Amino acid sequence: MKRLINKNSRPLIWLMLMTASIMAFSCNKWDDLTSPNESSVYMAQSGERGELHFYRIDSVQEFYFGASVGGFNGAPQNMNVSFEVDPSLVSTFNTDHSYLNYNFVELPDSSYTISGLESTIDKGVSDSKALKVSVMVNKLDPYTDYVLPIKIKSISAGNLDTTMSVSYFFIDSLYIRSRTVSGTLTVSNENSGGANAKEGSVRLNDNDYSTKFLYNYVDNSWMQLKLDAPAKLNAYELTSGNDADDRDPKNWQFLGSNDGSNWTVLDEHTDYKFYNRSQTIRFEYNDPSGEQYQYYRLLIQKNNGSNLFQMTEWTLLQYY
């Protein structure tokens, strides 16, 4: 004889079954859960996870590295981890990425410091105490790709995951943020109509690319900006005139001073040619000394042969 079950009782039966399952599962302590990677030590930034986003500025920039332990329960005991920088891995990194035309070189020793190469993963914790690398970006060539391979050298306990024991910290570009630095303009030679004339000196840095500064040219004439306070710059921009390329600068020096009399050459160009009219060119320079100057001067030693000189815009730039 079949047993009859009231259809209305079925939801109650399902609820009882689910409650029993939850109670059975809750009898297993969380600490009893294990993972195949339990006590396996590795670098979380292994492989290509070490891309560094650094800015092209003079201040020191930092990144951190360390080790981690796999599993649910953290380190079963205090685990000491030793690291080392391994320059021999640079060629390996380039070979493994040859299809991308990588040509990285080792980050120069003189451009960084490391807070240490020893750390500890404390018992019950999953990550070691972080170690810091401080990089002096102004000592790097902005057009070179750099890599710093750091690997786990040894561990005091657990199992080392050799597939994730190396981190490649690499720089394949330096990011630029720039701001315009303003100052009080003076010039050695003024437009015949005066500073406020249609082509007077005030047009040189008015941020209007439809105007220009024009004057009767003589060799070694100059234009100068005095800042409110000394500042370290990273670049300047020149914009050629709208016509007559024989009025363009050909040879010049970019100078810095703190008294308006004694000058330091920061950048210079010879036989330079602007290939287009109203063309803006950025000239970057690297001064590792980090010196700040209050006066900046553009000394025009030669133009392209005209008895006139012209320039649309001269802008000072600071990276931050």
- Main beta-sheet annotation: 6 strands, mixed
Rg over C-alpha atoms, rounded to the nearest angstrom: 32 Å
Mean pLDDT: 90
Shape: elongated
Instruction: Please give the alpha-carbon distance between the first and last residues.
Output: 87 Å
User: Any idea of the CATH class of the largest domain?
Assistant: Mainly Beta
Count of domains: 2
According to CATH, the fold-level topology of the largest domain is Jelly Rolls
| Structural class by helix and strand composition | mainly beta
Tally the beta strands. 25
CATH architecture of the largest domain: Sandwich
> How much of the polypeptide forms β-strand, as a percent range?
35-45%
CATH H level of the largest domain: which superfamily? Galactose-binding domain-like
Q: Would you list the SSEs in sequence order as H and E?
A: HEEEEEEHEEEEEEEEEEEEEEEEEEE
Low-confidence runs (pLDDT<50, min 5 residues)? 1-9, 22-30
Architecture overview:
Strands 2, 6, 7, 9, 11 and 13 form a six-stranded mixed β-sheet that branches. The longest helix is centred in the N-terminal third of the chain and has 17 residues, at 10-26. With 320 residues, the chain is mostly beta strands. It has two domains: 40-175, hypothetical protein (bacova_03559) (Immunoglobulin-like), CATH 2.60.40.1740; 178-319, Jelly Rolls. It has two helices and 25 strands. A hairpin with a 6-residue loop joins strand 20 and strand 21 (264-269).
